[in-house]
Amino acid sequence: MADMEDDTSAGISRRIRAERTAREWSLAELAERSGVSKAMLSAIERGDTSPTAALLVRIASAFDLTLSALIARAEVQHGRLLRAAEQMSWRDPATGYVRRHVSPPSDGPLELIRVEMPPGQSVHLPASSYVFIRQMIWLMEGRLDFIEGGFTHELQPGDCLELGPPSDCTFHTPGPAPAVYLVAVMRR
Fold first, then answer.
1. Residues 6+ apart with CB under 8 A from 21
2. 98 with 177, same domain?
3. Which end of the chain has the least Cβ crowding within 10 Å, N or C?
4. Contact 8, 89 (CB under 8 A)
5. What are the backbone dihedrals phi and psi of residue 152, each rounded to the nearest 5 degrees, phi first?
6. What is the Cα–Cα distance from 5 to 156, expressed in whole angstroms?
7. How many beta carbons lie within 10 A of that of residue 74, not counting itself?
8. Is 79 part of any domain?
9. What is the pLDDT of residues 85-124, one digit of tens each?
10. How many structural domains compose the chain?
11. Is the distance from CB of 112 to CB of 184 less than 8 angstroms?
């Protein structure tokens, strides 16, 4: 699995550069649009550092993409069947959460992502990361507090939550075990 995570990280670096180049943006322009420093963007594109989920969301938003779409574009295309051993995963260096794209990459509007977040960790995502998508979260194991705007949804195993209108959100695993959940993403 670590090799696949390394492949995805390298793919993300290449994809960010490809998206920037396709738009004919300089590093400075991407920095201005994303709010991520030019030095950090350069290090990410060179593969010298692995960006956190929060940074990737800001970069993806600058490209008018979701985090999921950016990562999916970085992954290798496998056709309609994506075997478990071929599913690419990415580990957030800040929290240790692991995101695995379980659905085959396609032009269709639906994506399935499996996330495992260690206990005591949180990931904060801005409202801009939800503008082009609708999502549902199905908690399979552990506990997950999903803070949407000012409201906290306390999810237990088996609970499924449809996200509301775009707002700043936080995924938090109160513990004591990791939270394992499936995110269904529908692109608009």
1. none
2. yes
3. C
4. yes
5. -105, 125
6. 28
7. 23
8. no
9. 888 888 999 999 999 988 887 767 888 999 999 999 999 9
10. 2
11. yes
